[in-house]
Specification:
Layout: H1 15-35, H2 38-57
Helix pairs in contact: 1-2
């Protein structure tokens, strides 16, 4: 369970995947705000901030390398 929220996996190394993932979370946040779902809006707001922080603010390409076996 420790790696459940770990977004530093090789899948997210390409920029378009990081942008798309963050954009989908932000889109869903807006949809929940427009339809009146405050709980889900808060959840997706946190997820959007979490993705933005890990994918763009503290991004280090070395963190997204395949681990040695």
């Amino acid at each position: 369970m420790a790696g459940f929220f770990d977004l530093r996996i090789p899948f997210f190394r390409p920029l378009y995947r990081r942008v798309l993932t963050t954009a989908v979370c932000a889109f869903w946040l807006v949809m929940e705000l427009l339809t009146g779902g405050p709980l889900w809006a808060a959840l997706f707001a946190g997820l959007t901030v979490y993705c933005t922080w890990h994918f763009f603010v503290t991004f280090n390409p070395a963190d997204f390398e395949e681990p040695d076996k």
